[in-house]
Amino acid sequence: MFPLNAADHFTLMMDHEIRKSGLAGNLCALVIELETCPDKDELSKKTRSFAQRFPLAVASLQKTGRRYAWEERHKSPDIFFHHVCHDVKNSGTFQIETLKKIINKKQPLEDLLPVEVHLIESEKNNQLVLRWFHPLCDAKGIELILHHIIHQGQHQHNDAPAGVDAWLAKQGLWQKIKFAFKARNNIRQLDRLNSALLNPADQPADTFDFQIVRYDKEQTAKINMLARQYAGMTGTALYFIGCMMRTLKTVGCDHQGDGFCVPYAFNLRKRKALFPIFGNHVSFLFSQASHTQLKSKQQLFEHLKEQNKHSIRHSLDFAMLPLMEAGSWLNLDRFGEIVRKNPQATERSSFWFSYTGEMDPPMTEILGCNVTGLFQISPVTAPPSFGMLVSQLNGELTISYCYIPQHVPEEKLVRITKQMSLELMDQA
Amino acid sequence: MHDQIKTFITQEIVQLENPEHFSSDDDLLAAGLDSMGIMRLIMFLEKTFGVTLPDNEIEPDNIQTLNYIVKWVERHQ
């Protein structure tokens, strides 16, 4: 049995909430676009070999008492799937539809494969899709899984505790409790503003969708330069959050609230480390701004930077870990309610956000096929029914807009993506 | 206040063999008050007595015995 850590439990709770929203669960995908199609037998062999070396990748999630743990399966299942488009004219549609099926496939928790590797092959484009169940690992972890599948056997396995477990193990009982209350008090402070939401999500949902917006090298360089200018050297994530807040304000939210509140994760792994592969090694920060603070872009980012500095200065970032650890002892329903809802029973998150930055370790080719693009997809709860995931490959940004179509109509999504590009390029 | 806290601790937080012999100076940590118990206790105190207990004061000197707890809450009322 492999127990889940506190952050894994947090993502499991989100799985529960996503399922309650009517979707398949916390199933995410890393999508690698390839110029040509890799040898499927070679890829299948490498995937099988990876699963044998790392049985956790094919384990089954089981409830043990109040908590959950991964249990090894008696027989290792095949996690490689091959999809071929035979209709050349409709290869683009085939890819999108196949991808949507993969991330929207509903199945019981204990039957879920933690990782699936899908090769979507067509005459014009090819995609390698790593579909992962979030309690297994974070977005950085899935990049490492891809690395270990392709470059198998080149690295010694390292079991040293890292990230969440290491940090929590260093804290004494009283320190953990102090941190947990510090985090709770911070959230109480945030709850003074009711969060704006695109849609109150009162219609039932059954599927989620995505839209990809790409920026070329020149546009990416400009956006990254503006991010440094507005939000500082380390504030790229803040730049995307702030620009989206202003975008939603311009486009208009059905539930206007008092302002926008956005939680975002930061990774505790050591930079460039190839281990640990599994586990979520993240904690959380919040960005919040009132409607008044959104009026001036300059002032908004001064505010967001100061808020971020305050959080780090007072250890509010790491303080979330003991709170998540305490939450992991609650049942998923109760944990979800506490995490998502403010005292007015309104959703706390205005939208979901993830920024993974440039892929690391870099991957320019897979089994001799050039990598031409990369994006991530993640489901969201309803509400907020809307999320934005930013990734970068070879100096080119990609934004995945993940949304629930029943709550975010296509016309509104088009307005959001256009307005967001204007904000990012400082042309709004 | 004293009795309300005592009832909460003995009925909800710590399983005592002889709750009737529980004294206000007994060491609650030695009696089995764990981290989840401390968190539940603090939330109970804040809600029941309408106080906000500062996170930097969460330490044994304020929680180890029933008498310490009562004094801690009184200081913030």
Count of beta strands of chain A: 15
Which percent band covers the strand fraction of chain B? under 5%
Helix count of chain A?
12
Order of helices and strands of chain A: EHEHEEEHEEHHHEHHEEHHHEEEEEH
Round the mean pLDDT of chain A to the nearest integer and report it: 94
Shape of chain B: globular
Distance from N terminus to C terminus of chain B (CA atoms, Å) equals 12 Å
Structural class of chain B: mainly alpha
Q: Residue ranges of chain A: pLDDT <50 for 5 or more in a row? A: none
Summarize the structure in words.
The complex is a heterodimer of chains A (428) and B (77). In chain A, 47% of the residues are buried. The longest helix of chain A is centred in the middle third of the chain and has 18 residues, at 173-190. Helix content of chain A is 38%, strand content 23%. Chain A is an alpha+beta fold. By secondary structure, chain B is mainly α. Chain B contains 4 helices and no strands. In chain B, helix 1 packs antiparallel against helix 2 (35-49). The longest helix of chain B is centred in the middle third of the chain and has 15 residues, at 35-49. Chain B is globular and about 30 Å long. The termini of chain B are close together. The A-B interface holds A 173-174, 176-182, 185, 326, 329 and B 35-36, 38-39, 42, 52-53, 55-56, 58-60.
